[in-house]
Amino acid sequence: MLDNKICFTLNGNKVEFIGDPLRRLIDTLREDFGLTGTKEGCGEGECGACSIIKDGLLVTSCIIPMGAVNGSDIWTIEGIRETELGKIIIDAFADGGAVQCGFCIPGMVLASYVLLKKVEDPSEEEIRVALSGNICRCTGYDLIVESVKLASRRRRDG
C-alpha cells in the first residue's frame, strides 16, 4: 500500500489525510474524522445516502477515492448544519414532516443546500431534479419537496 499525504478543506477547516489514495472518501470521513452523518447505502453511488459537497457540487462519497480530494473543499452534513442556510433547511425538514427514519435526510439536505445556493425560489420540477439522485424509502418525496419549498420561503422572508 502506498501512503500519500492528501490535504483538503473539510467543513471549513484545513485537514490532512496520510494513507492510501485509493481509499474511499466515505470511509475516511466516517472512520478517521468521525463524521458519521454520511451514510453508506448502496456503495455504488446510486442512492445518495453518502452525499457530500465537493467543490460546490453534490457527489457520492462512496465512489470517490481519497486521491481525488487533494486540494478540494469538502462539506458534510455536520458542516452544513452549522451554516445559516443549513439550519433553515433542517428546520424546514423537521417542521414539514420530511423526516422519518432519517437515513436519507443528510443527502436530501445537502442536495437542497446546493440547489438553494444556486436558485432562490426553485420550481417543484427544479427541486425534484435536484433531489433525483437521493432515494427515500420512508417519508416519500412529496413531504421532502414541500419542505424544500418551505426552506426557500423562510430564507427569502428572513
For the termini, the CA-CA separation is 51 Å
Query: Beta-strand percentage?
Result: 15-25%
**Which class of secondary structure composition applies to the elements?**
alpha+beta
- Helical percent range? 25-40%
The profile of the biggest β sheet is: 5 strands, mixed
Compute the CA-based radius of gyration.
Answer: 16 Å
Strand order of the largest sheet: 2-1-5-3-4
Stretches where pLDDT is under 50 for at least 5 consecutive residues are none
Order of helices and strands: EEHEEEHHHHH
Rough outline: globular
Oligomerization state of this entry?
Answer: single chain
**Quantity of strands, as a count:** 5
Residue-averaged pLDDT? 94
- Per DSSP, the total helix count is 6
What's this, in brief?
With 158 residues, this protein is α+β, with helices and mostly antiparallel strands.
What do you see in this structure?
This protein has 158 residues and is α+β, with helices and mostly antiparallel strands. Helix content is 40%, strand content 16%. It has 6 helices and 5 strands. The chain has helices at residues 25-32, 77-80, 84-95, 105-118, 124-131, 141-157; strands at residues 4-10, 13-19, 51-54, 57-60, 73-75. The protein has a 5-stranded mixed beta sheet. A hairpin with a 2-residue loop joins strand 3 and strand 4. Helix 3 (84-95) crosses helix 4 and helix 5 packs across helix 6 (141-157). The longest helix has 17 residues, at 141-157. The chain is globular and about 50 Å long. The termini are far apart. The model has no long low-confidence stretch (mean pLDDT 94).
